[in-house]
Amino acid sequence: MNKDLEHQFVTELENNQNIVHKVCTLYTNNRDAHNDLFQEITIQLWKAYPKFRGDSKFSTWMYRVALNTAITLYRKTKKSIPTQDYESVIFKIKADEYDATEEEQLKLMYKAVKELGDIDKALVFLYLEDKNYREISDTLGISEVNARVKMNRIKIKLRTILNP
Amino acid sequence: MMDELELLKKDWQRKGENLPKLTYHEIYRMLRKESSSIVKWLFYISLIELAFWILLSALPFFWKNIQKKFNDTYGEGDDVFFIAFTVLSIVIVLVFVYYLFKSYKAISTVDSVKNVMESILRTRRIVRYYVAYNLIMVVIITLHTFYSLFTHDEKTIKLLDTLKDNGSEMRFWLLCGLIVLLGIGFMIGFIWLFYRLVYGILLKRLNKNYNELKRLEV
Question: Where is the chain membrane-spanning (chain B) (predicted)?
Answer without folding.
Answer: 41-62, 82-101, 130-150, 170-195
